Amino acid sequence: GAVVSQHPSWVICKSGTSVKIECRSLDFQATTMFWYRQFPKQSLMLMATSNEGSKATYEQGVEKDKFLINHASLTLSTLTVTSAHPEDSSFYICISQPMTGSNSPLHFGNGTRLTVT
Amino acid sequence: DAKTTQPNSMESNEEEPVHLPCNHSTISGTDYIHWYRQLPSQGPEYVIHGLTSNVNNRMASLAIAEDRKSSTLILHRATLRDAAVYYCILRDWWSGNTPLVFGKGTRLSVIA
User: Fold this and answer.
1) Do A93 and B43 make contact, defined as CB atoms within 8 angstroms?
2) Contact status, residue A108 vs residue B43, Cβ threshold 8 Å
3) How far off is chain A from B70, nearest CA to CA, in Å?
4) Does residue A41 carry a pLDDT above 70?
């Protein structure tokens, strides 16, 4: 079945540094990539929606200058957490929408656990 | 997307069937019913989805009420690996590329 490869699966970084998370769709073309984060014991919260070749749309309260999203091709989307702080420590998940239509199942990355020290 | 209501948690014995309910009384005619689950420390994964008719796949069965205001995910024989949070989500066919809206889901515990 369709696979989304998300890397890294976990990362520890120092406060003030930047971290890039990649999501690649391996055998399908992803027109849209949704980026979520999940704090412990909570549900997934949408951060932003990115469409290939256009600027991402961010949810209210999510800083677009802090969470940089690039969706330059139909198979790759990246999320960069800039100047990370301990409160950015979370589980980040990409969810991909194939081109086959909005009623088809979405495909999930396996998540990136970010710890900022 | 319309809202869904699920129990916070359920418990099952291993190798017994599990019925996970979901209420979606405000479902529209173009809403598909999707089920996803999230195993501990992993991203969610697709389980099953349907519109009106009951659906079966290798993972589970989806029973949809005739009025579509509720549905039940059926795991025929629960295993320890099925312990996860199960999310019931409605997705409008006509809305294009809309994101999933996750509620709190049902945390399923499986007892050996």
Assistant:
1) yes
2) yes
3) 19
4) yes
CB A28 within 8 A of CB A107: yes
Contacts of B107 (CB under 8 A, 6+ apart): B8, B9, B10, B84, B85
Question: Which chain A positions have a beta carbon within 8 Å of B45's beta carbon?
Answer: 108
Q: Looking at residue A79, what is its pLDDT? A: 96
Phi, psi of B61, deg, nearest 5:
-125, 150
A106 pLDDT band, cuts 50/70/90, is confident
> Residues with Cβ < 8 Å from B8, sequence gap 6 or more?
B104, B106, B107
Instruction: Decide: B24 and B88 in contact? Cβ < 8 Å.
Output: yes
Token pair recorded at residue B51: 């519109």
Give the span between the Cα atoms of A109 and A25, in whole angstroms: 9
Interface of A with B in 37-96 (CB under 8 A): 43-46, 49, 51, 91, 93, 95
By DSSP bridging, strand B44-50 and strand B18-23 are: unpaired
The radius of gyration computed from the CA coordinates of chain A, to the nearest angstrom, equals 13
A79 to chain B, minimum CA–CA distance in Å? 16
